[in-house]
Write a structure and sequence with these properties.
By secondary structure, the chain is an alpha+beta fold. The protein has helices at 20-30, 49-57, 68-71, 85-95, 115-139; strands at residues 34-39, 42-48, 78-80, 99-103, 109-114.
Length: 144
């Protein structure tokens, strides 16, 4: 299975000059913990709820004047949409992150994949395997 099959799509990108308050409100309204940051058709980073708490709230910044660019994680960690889920999981483990941005082969942003997405796929795989094993158990004669 590849990343494209389980990533979140339709993810909004915000500009680095967006206020911290506006970004936090978007996270609250959308019930998500990270927003990609970009400008001029290029990704520049990722802002997470943790970035906001540690970089803005704990530093007593004015949430209306401080910007996402002030607190975002500037390193863009990404994978390709046609990479395997194993590759994405290994990248998350290696980089110690919970989510990575997904780009196409033209390096255009197309989505985001999280540990939660990977966990859901794994639960589905385990459930399918369990169902198949259970079906086989019912077909096999009982052994005494």
């Amino acid at each position: 299975m590849n990343v494209k099959e389980c990533m979140s799509t339709g993810v909004e990108v915000i500009g680095p000059k967006t206020s911290i308050r506006e970004a936090a409100q978007m996270m609250k309204d959308g019930d998500f913990g990270a927003i990609p940051v970009g400008a001029n058709d290029r990704l520049q980073g990722l802002v997470t709820d943790r970035d906001i708490v540690v970089g803005a709230v704990a530093e007593s910044r004015d949430l209306d004047t401080a910007t996402v660019g002030d607190v975002m994680s500037k390193e863009v960690i990404y994978c390709y949409e046609d990479d395997t889920l194993d590759h994405a999981a290994q990248l998350m483990a290696d980089r110690q992150v919970r989510r990575i941005l997904v780009v196409n082969r033209d390096k255009r942003f197309v989505g985001i994949i999280s540990l939660g997405d990977l966990a859901q796929v794994e639960r589905t795989r385990i459930g399918k395997t369990l169902s198949e094993v259970s079906e086989q158990d019912h077909r096999e004669p009982a052994r005494h």
